[in-house]
Amino acid sequence: MSTNIENRPATREENQALSKYIAQNQALFKNPVICGFFESPEHVRLLCQNILFPTTENRSHLERAFQRYFFQIRFTKYLGSLIRFCDIDYHRKRTREEQRNPLVFDTPVDESGDATFGELVYSNSIALEDEFTLNQSNRVCT
Fold first, then answer.
1. Is residue 83 part of a domain?
2. Which segments of 38-116 does DSSP mark as H helices, in order?
3. Which domain holds residue 91?
4. Are residues 59 and 89 in the same domain?
5. pLDDT one-digit tens code per residue, 65-101
6. Hey, is 116 helix, strand or coil?
7. Contact between 115 and 104 (Cβ < 8 Å)
8. Burial 83-94 (b: 16+ CB within 10 A, else e)
9. Contact 49/13 with Cβ under 8 angstroms?
10. How confident is the model at residue 58, as a pLDDT?
């Protein structure tokens, strides 16, 4: 961003012009977007330049700075909304999938509820692995 505004303190003339402008436009400065824009000293200086020297160039510098600032606000709001709605969609989809495809490993095998289907499958797979290991070791040795 290249502007020809130097980093110097505001003159008394600029401060008076700014105070007068704020007093005349109190409703404008109640807007949080406008207040946020003028938190930057560079933007305040652009406004002072436009008040004291009302040329089309000074006005266009101020307008472009505000357009950039307002675009950043809108883009940040858009990204926040996008993230929020994607999160909502993800949770809806996940809930729908969980309702359609319940986990069968967590269902009890018998009425007592001590063992689950997942534990039964796991214990059977360990027994099969042990049996397979024994059969393989006998073949290798012979």
1. yes
2. 41-52, 56-100
3. 12-95
4. yes
5. 999 999 999 999 999 999 999 999 999 999 999 888 7
6. strand
7. no
8. eeeeeeeeeeee
9. no
10. 93
Q: State the CB neighbour count (10 A cutoff) for residue 58.
A: 17
As for how many domains the chain has, the answer is: 2
CB-facing half-sphere around the CA of 40: CA atoms within 13 A: 13
- Is residue 2, in this structure, part of any structural domain at all? no
Examine the domain organization and report whether 53 and 27 are in the same domain: yes
pTM for the structure as a whole? 0.61
DSSP letter at 11 equals P
> What tokens appear for 87 in the block?
């999160």
Separation CA 39–CA 42 (nearest Å) = 9
| Total length of the chain | 142
Contact 18, 46 (CB under 8 A): no
Residues 28 and 77 in one domain: yes
Identify any residues that bridge with 116 across adjacent strands, giving them in sequence order: 108
Looking at the fold, whether 110 and 142 belong to one and the same domain comes out as yes
Q: Which two tokens stand for residue 114?
A: 């001590």
Residue whose C-alpha is closest to residue 46's, from 68, 78, 76: 68
